[in-house]
Amino acid sequence: MRVDAVVVSYNSQAELRGCVEPLSALEGVQTFVVDNASTDDSVASVADLPVEVIALSENNGFGAGCNAGWRRGEAPSVLFLNPDATIDELSLRRLVDVLEGDESVGLVGPRILESDGSLAFSQRRFPQLRSTYARALFLHRIFKRASWADELVRDPSAYDGPASPDWVSGACMLVRRSALDEVGGFDERFFLYCEDKDLCRRIRAAGFDVRYEPGATIRHRGGGSAPRAGLLPVLARSRVVYAHKHWGRARAALETGGVALNALTHAVVTSGGREKRAGHLNALAAALGRRRGA
User: Fold this and answer.
1) Nearest to residue 80, comparing CAs of 64, 90, 69?
2) Contact 240/256 with Cβ under 8 angstroms?
3) Are 158 and 31 in contact (CB under 8 A)?
């Protein structure tokens, strides 16, 4: 097993060591901790571990941090793992087996369990106008397993066996280095959110398959949480950037409208108080600002 493990940290001191220490003990795994200009001295928590720390002077986003990490290594497989997640040796070996057993596979993701042991819906569909508007109008809460109503694959039985979803959660992905080289890694225009679906889309366009492998399991402590209020505008902006990148002008404009509608309806009905409402309204402004060319 030859794997470069990349963990991008931003103010992750409380959880970083729990993620990195098991990786650093595995034979054949070179661990890179990319610190995105943290202010909580995250790096100090792993200073005694056999890892290579890449301390960036500014935070240019998750994708930029991932790129800084994988380009430093040479292993044929690259593991991208969130700092609030953990993976054991058997699960990592199973992901490696998927890549080594089928040259057509460019990226594989594991089963993801939340901190309470419940299943995280990590298999995803590429965005469609119908799913964007369905979520804006809360139809995905009524038609919970309908493929047209949501990007998440919410049928638990879909997670029992191997699958080839459109894309998988970026909380944990093992990627073939040659595939990363071919597509150029992460698109750094996505500061946070949508960089994983964009990567999977480009890897598929390059002729590789994307797989889900239930024989590998990770624990993700942040898996079930919705974006914090302050990150809602970042999510909205990334969705609009994704639409303008992959769709024509008319369809991208309709997607922008759906993202804006989603922010507006959630601002109206949110039970998260003033802070959450402000976050949704800021997301509305972010979506419309991007539409005007901001």
Assistant:
1) 69
2) yes
3) no
Beta strands in 10-90, from DSSP E residues, in sequence order = 29-36, 52-56, 77-81, 85-87
DSSP assigned state of 272: S
C-alpha span between 167 and 184 (Å, rounded): 18
Region 3-220: CATH code: 3.90.550.10
Count of C-beta atoms within a 10 Å radius of residue 45: 20
- Per domain, the residue ranges of the chain are 3-220, 229-291
Task: Write the pLDDT tens digit of every residue in 263-277.
Answer: 999 999 998 899 999
Q: What is the pTM of this model?
A: 0.94
The answer to whether the Cα torsion of 270, 120, 149, 284 is positive or negative is positive
Nearest to 40 by CA among 13, 8, 62, 80: 13
Instruction: Spell out a b/e string for 185-204, using b for 16 or more CB atoms within 10 Å of the CB, else e.
Output: bbbbbbbbbbbbbbbbbbbb
Secondary structure (3-state) at 226: coil
> Number of C-alpha atoms within 13 angstroms, CB side, residue 89?
10
Q: pLDDT tens, 75-104?
A: 999 999 999 999 999 999 999 999 999 999
Asked if residue 83 lies in contact with residue 17, where contact means CB atoms within 8 angstroms, the answer is no
Q: Is the separation of the CB atoms in 181 and 206 below 8 Å?
A: no
